[in-house]
Design a protein that fits this description.
- The protein has one helix and 14 strands, in the order E-H-E-E-E-E-E-E-E-E-E-E-E-E-E.
- The protein starts with 8 loop residues before the first strand and ends with a strand.
- The chain is mainly beta.
- The longest helix is centred in the N-terminal third of the chain and has 4 residues, at about 25-30.
- The protein has one helix at about 25-30, and strands at about 10-15, 35-40, 45-50, 50-60, 60-65, 70-80, 90-105, 110-130, 135-150, 150, 155-175, 185-200, 205-220, 225-235.
- A hairpin with a 4-residue loop joins strand 5 and strand 6.
């Protein structure tokens, strides 16, 4: 990519279930007693230069009620300015709010089944110089399920290979930016997913998990598909 002297920086960090698609993942599989969990970074992105200035900050936290049920909240704040030569700059400030309900079924100590439902909706605070029919908006629902195997490597380290699928429906009008909101997709989306989680027991109370995952997504509205590899880092308390 060529960079001019005025195209300053582009930093992107994403730690999500799908990049731009969903959030939390299998918390009661990692730790079964009641308590909190949080990603190290749920979503964070900075873009700057001669054409665009965008800041995306998305903290998240969740709570395990018991070994079966948990809930998580993701608040994603975005502020973006797109610069044009022929008309006034477009500006937008919004909040993308997501909630995830999770359930884990324990068939045995080594086989678990995880289901989640994630709901997202965006709220605009400031929108300037956008066409009326193109103002940013997001409403989406996604459900996913996976089967996990638990493979102990030591007293403090476990591997959890997993495979499953997801299906969701959304209505999404993106921001004039290269930055996408979490769980931003249009129409019906469906596909399989495959992962391999590594869980490290730092103490009796704190677990650290690293979960690379591969997703294949098909979008019915556009009859297209894509795939990506994501890595998620979380602390379970």
């Amino acid at each position: 990519m060529r960079k001019s002297a005025t195209a300053v920086f582009a930093i992107t960090i994403r730690c999500t279930l799908f990049a731009g698609t969903s959030i939390t993942r299998a918390q009661t599989i990692y730790k079964s007693d009641p308590g909190f969990f949080t990603p190290l970074l749920e979503s964070f992105e900075l873009r700057g230069g001669s054409l665009e200035s965008t800041q995306l900050i998305g903290p998240a936290a969740g709570y395990r009620f018991n070994k079966k049920f948990d809930i998580a909240l993701h608040t994603e704040f975005l502020s973006s300015e797109r610069k044009f030569n022929t008309r006034p700059n477009s500006k937008v400030t919004l909040l993308n709010l997501g909630i995830t309900f999770g359930h884990t079924r324990h068939f045995s100590e080594s086989i678990k089944f995880r289901s989640e439902v994630s709901l997202y909706k965006s709220f605009n605070f400031q929108v300037e110089n956008y066409p009326d029919d193109s103002e940013p908006s997001l409403n989406s629902a996604l459900t996913s399920s996976s089967l996990y195997a638990v493979l102990p490597l030591s007293d403090t380290i476990r591997l959890l290979p997993n495979a499953g699928g997801f299906i969701g429906y959304g209505s999404y009008e993106p921001v004039f930016s290269a930055t996408d909101l979490t769980q931003g997709f249009d129409g019906l989306m469906v596909g399989p997913k495959f992962g391999l989680a590594g869980v490290f027991e730092l103490s009796d109370d704190i677990y650290f998990s690293v979960t690379p995952a591969y997703h294949i997504r098909y979008f019915n509205k556009y009859d297209t598909s894509n795939s990506d590899l994501t890595i998620d880092f979380r602390l379970n308390f």
